[in-house]
Design goal:
By secondary structure, this protein is mostly helical. It has 24 helices and 6 strands. The longest helix has 38 residues, at 15-52.
Length: 570
């Protein structure tokens, strides 16, 4: 009854009061879900792999094998059967939902992401919790908006606020969370959603401070001002760390593309392959060094590296093993993010460079720490394409202001290299791989420019075609697909448009259907030209054809209107 009263109260609010209280609800709900996610991962990891690491080597090897294989199987089934959208980090999926679906994220995404993410990361997969926290929190906020009476076409503010609160809670970094959402998801640092995002980020950080504590993610002793040796090595560390990130992105996406094309293995079993490779690498490194960094987040070993307790040769071993393990876990369909691995890669690069240089010249401990955090920021900023976030997130995680000048220098080097070698950030490249053009997901804000874009950006590819007008075919297509119109391709050419109403009538009257005349255009024609064609069409349906006459896609009036609403809300 109390919950019902609160929902009705929120639904009845108006104006700025409504916006303010909704943002508070999104921030607290999303922040608490991210904190619960973090606590569940920590508890399960400590009860499983960490406890096994205190046993004999044989017990650890056999126990960790059972844990990582079992967890990978469960994750594979959850993602394949219940919600494929919950795979990977979740940030590109939330970005797509923000722009394409107006911020509406089904509740199914939230619970599958929570369960699969906890099992995957705590079970040892070499992935991070921050990306999943963003998708989980964004989904929770989107559904809270639904409970508060927001229509499905008006939940972008909720999704953005939830994402910001989730990242702030995951890293205890409200400023970085705000800039990340504005840079990466919204794509506009001056967005009108800034107020809600900032408030939700503060509440997400408040939630993690109140439940877990105010400590930074990585505790460092006070770092003195870097020496000239450190500043001289900073461009080198940033360049090497960025190159690691560039090839991590290329390798992960390449493996992901190939794994999706595999047909001889069921989809739910593919994450197990990544788990097995991680287990082999993780156990091998653990037997040689006693370190668990290949498994799960790796934050314990990264913290030790920042404290100067990891030799550069061990750092190199950890970097190589975790690099391969993360590529396999992500590329083979695991559930987890890339933030933590990127920070790990960059930190180890800094330790390695400092160690190698220290063989000939003196490198003080403060310089080692600075080079490590420069590497962390460079790898993360280069991979996600968000340099401001890369600087702020490391600064807030360490609480060391003296690191900022070196971080800024490293960001300049990182962005110049990453943007010259990769045309898109990791998340944008993943969306492109899945068939989502970024210009389609986030249309330009200028109406005239948008109308000059090609039709290909808003068309629906691979439409369902009617290849004959037999009774059996029409019954089967009507039963299998909910569409109102079907292009009829007879004897290899487009003959017309079969409407559902006409097909139903023809079946009932036992006669041949009458086709509507088709309206066609080419994929390179402009959206402005398409608008005129849709107005003239008797079916409000345009078939996009290739130069040889074959069908490339279709566009309905609904497709056009949805794209226009997205443009207006951008």
């Amino acid at each position: 009854m109390k919950t019902h009263f609160i929902v009705r109260y929120l639904q009845g609010l108006q104006g700025q009061t409504r916006t303010l209280l909704h943002s508070c609800a999104y921030g607290l709900g999303a922040g608490l879900s991210a904190v619960a996610f973090q606590l569940a991962i920590t508890w399960l990891y400590n009860a499983g792999l960490l406890r096994l690491s205190q046993e004999s080597k044989v017990t650890f090897a056999l126990g960790s094998l059972a844990v990582i294989v079992g967890s990978s199987l469960v994750v594979g089934v959850l993602l394949s059967v219940f919600c494929p959208v919950a795979a990977g980090s979740g940030i590109p999926q939330l970005k797509l939902a923000f722009w394409k679906d107006f911020g509406t994220v089904p509740w199914r995404v939230a619970w599958v992401k929570f369960v699969a993410g906890v099992i995957s990361i705590a079970g040892g997969s070499s992935l991070g919790r921050e990306g999943p926290s963003v998708q989980l929190a964004g989904a929770v906020a989107s559904n809270l908006a639904g409970l508060a009476g927001e229509p499905k076409q008006n939940r972008r503010a909720a999704a953005a606020a939830g994402a910001s609160a989730g990242l702030a809670a995951a890293f205890n970094s409200p400023l970085a969370a705000t800039t990340f959402v504005l840079e990466e998801i919204i794509g506009d640092l001056n967005s009108r959603l800034l107020g809600g995002v900032l408030l939700a980020s503060f509440l997400g950080a408040l939630a993690v401070n109140g439940i877990i504590g105010p400590q930074p993610a990585f505790a460092l002793a006070e770092v003195k001002t870097p020496t000239w040796v450190c500043y001289a090595l900073t461009p080198l560390v940033a360049a090497l760390a960025t190159l690691v990130g560039v090839y991590f992105q290329r390798s992960s996406l390449s493996l992901r593309r190939r794994s999706k094309a595999v047909r001889w293995l069921p989809g739910w079993s593919i994450p197990v392959v990544g788990g097995l490779i991680t287990w082999i690498l993780g156990v091998s490194v653990f037997w040689q060094t006693g370190r668990m960094g290949v498994f799960s987040l790796g934050y314990s070993d990264l913290s030790d590296a920042l404290a100067g307790h990891v030799a550069w040769k061990i750092a190199a071993l950890l970097l190589a093993a975790k690099f391969i393990a993360t590529i396999c876990c992500y590329g083979l369909g695991g559930c987890g993010g890339i933030f933590s691995p990127c920070l790990f890669f960059g930190g180890m690069v800094g330790v390695i460079v400092a160690g190698v240089v220290g063989l000939e010249w003196s490198v003080v401990r403060g310089d080692v720490v600075t080079l490590a955090v420069v590497g962390m920021s460079a790898t993360l900023g280069g991979v996600v394409g968000a340099p401001v976030t890369g600087i702020l997130i490391v600064f807030e995680m360490t609480h060391q202001f003296t690191l900022v000048p070196a971080l800024m220098l490293g960001a300049i080097v990182s962005q110049s290299i990453s943007r010259s070698m990769n045309s898109e950030s990791f998340y944008d490249a993943l969306l492109v791989q899945d068939g989502h053009r970024i210009d389609h997901v986030r249309p330009p804000r200028d109406l005239h420019s948008w109308q000059q874009l090609p039709v290909a950006l808003i068309m629906t590819k691979n439409p369902v075609l009617i290849t004959d007008l037999s009774r059996t075919t029409m019954e089967q297509e009507l039963k299998s697909h909910p569409y109102d119109r079907f292009p009829a391709v007879l004897e290899g050419s487009l003959a017309g448009i079969l409407t559902r109403r006409e097909a139903v009538a023809a079946l009932a009257e036992n006669r041949s259907p009458v086709l509507e005349p088709p309206t066609t255009c080419r994929a390179d024609q402009t959206i402005l030209e398409l608008q005129k064609l849709l107005i003239d069409s008797t079916t409000q349906y345009v078939v996009v054809t290739k130069r040889d006459g074959s069908i490339h896609g279709v566009i309905t009036l609904h497709d056009l209107l949805r794209a226009q609403v997205e443009k207006a809300g951008a």
